[in-house]
Amino acid sequence: MPNSTSTTAGATASTSAGATVSTTAESSPPGASRRAGRKEWTAFTVLLLPLLLVSMDVSVLYFALPSISAELHPTATQQLWITDVYAFALAGLLITMGSLGDRIGRRKLLLFGAAAFGVASVTAAYATGAEMLIASRALLGIGGATLMPSTMGLVRTMFHDDKQRAQAVGIWSGAMAGGIALGSVLSGVMLEHLWWGSVFLVNVPAMVLLLVLTPILVPEFKDPAPGRFDVVSVPLSMGAVLPVVYGLKEFAADGFAWSYVVCVAVGLVLGTVFVRRQRTRGSALISRELFRPGRRFGAAISLNTIAAFAMMGSAYFTTQYLQSVLGMSTMRAALWSVAPSLAVGIAAPTASAVARKVDRAYVVAAGFVVAAAGYALLALSGTDSLVMVLAGAAVIGSGIVTVMALVSDMALTSAPVAKAGSAASLLETGQEFGGALGMAVLGSVGTAVYRADMPASAPAAARQTLGAAVAGADQGLSALARAAFVHGMQYATLGGTLVLVAAAVLAAGMLRGVGAAGTPAQGTGVQVPEAARGRVTEPAV
């Protein structure tokens, strides 16, 4: 066991005034770590701004696309890139930006990202052509990739107390989930009164506020000895992530095609090369320290990916159900989709409180079981089951946010303070993979059942998608298509239920003995190195 002598934790903290202090890891007992005060919680509130905006920008174009198409006249391919390039740039650069933030400073990277996000928002709002809008959306994705790991990494280094950090990560997870729903609603409301560019300009005041308040409230943290930056791994990481995410998303949207299989295969090959490089180089984008035995960081990444699989897999069906099965307008469907968020907002803090008293393995497993129950509710839905579908979405969201909050806190706590940005980027990259896989796998199951149920005499377009079927004038065909979609949803959600039950069993086994904040539960006999507990204190300057 380590002695009580403090050892260097491998991170530096700069005060807002510019002074630099070193953080140290102590073997102090639980409860001895410094608790965050008003300044830290105010800073955390400021850090929620970029998180909300980045997650909102995933869905903000849902309502704006018709207006953009009418004014900019993009081709079909350009319209797809307008929608997708943001998510692709975000996913492809998360690993790189997380590692870069650990090296140059998370606050510095956050400020760079905020400036880029603000500038890109203005250029997107006043884009004069499709090419300009695509470039602006790509820059927004690059800015988003700097903001997300920086905010979570800073949460790790600002909150030393286990209980407070768990609360902060729970709020962080809820805000991220809520931002996606809020984005579609906000864009719909703004487009009722303003032009399409206004959905981007809403980012600007928040970014200005972030640029002003962050240097005052948020301390700087970086790795003082990060080693040489591995430039070659940057394109390798992008080559590993982007083809897989693209192939899976297109597979979910258009069905099977060999070109999508090739994309995924290329990504997996490059991913293998990337992982091998990280394991063999002394200084790599992803630190091998994160995956040392006993940290359970890999387990947290895996479970978080499964949770994202379930979240996006259910969203694939519920959004179409509200609009195409129940016939709601886009705006009305978006407003109804916010209702489940009320339950989700309570789930994360409740789970964090329970996990302080109960073995975390059982709380995470319970979250998966709750989400499985929500999937079961979707499986029981018919063609006129608004309450059942909304209840299912609320139960799924509550269970998944419980899982995400707890495993995210565990992953950040187990990571060395100096590598918190890299740890956060891996968590978020796993979420991108899981979300794309959930839509591809469950969406494919639902689509296969839908196409099997549709009569051979139906028009080809109607047999391909529900949207094409209900857009036609044939009411009988529309009714058949709605029933076929619900039948496909029932099969897919039954499959999702089985996946989540298996995930619950997996979580109970992988995380057994993990107590509050990722440390061993009392009486388990499992020991974790002190450095893995993330206890840091800052000596007086």
Structure description:
The protein has 541 residues and is mainly alpha-helical. The protein has three domains: 37-229, Growth Hormone, Chain: A (Up-down Bundle); 230-282; 293-524, MFS general substrate transporter like domains (Growth Hormone, Chain: A, Up-down Bundle). 72% of the residues lie in helices and 4% in strands. The chain contains 18 helices and four strands. It has helices at residues 38-59, 65-72, 76-104, 106-125, 130-158, 162-193, 198-201, 203-217, 233-254, 258-280, 297-325, 330-355, 360-379, 386-414, 420-453, 460-464, 466-471, 475-510, and strands at 7-14, 20-25, 220-222, 536-537. The protein has a four-stranded antiparallel beta sheet with strand order 3-1-2-4. The protein is globular, with a radius of gyration of 23 Å. Mean pLDDT is 78; it is low at 1-32 and 516-541.
Summarize the structure.
With 541 residues, the chain is mainly alpha-helical. The chain has helices spanning 38-59, 65-72, 76-104, 106-125, 130-158, 162-193, 198-201, 203-217, 233-254, 258-280, 297-325, 330-355, 360-379, 386-414, 420-453, 460-464, 466-471, 475-510; strands at residues 7-14, 20-25, 220-222, 536-537. Strands 3-1-2-4 form a 4-stranded antiparallel beta sheet.
Distance linking N and C termini: 30 Å
User: How many structurally independent domains?
Assistant: 3
Structural class: mainly alpha
CATH fold node name of the largest domain: Growth Hormone, Chain: A
Radius of gyration: 23 Å
Major beta sheet, strand line-up: 3-1-2-4
Per CATH, the class of the largest domain reads: Mainly Alpha
Tell me the number of helical segments per DSSP (H or I, 4 or more residues long).
Answer: 18
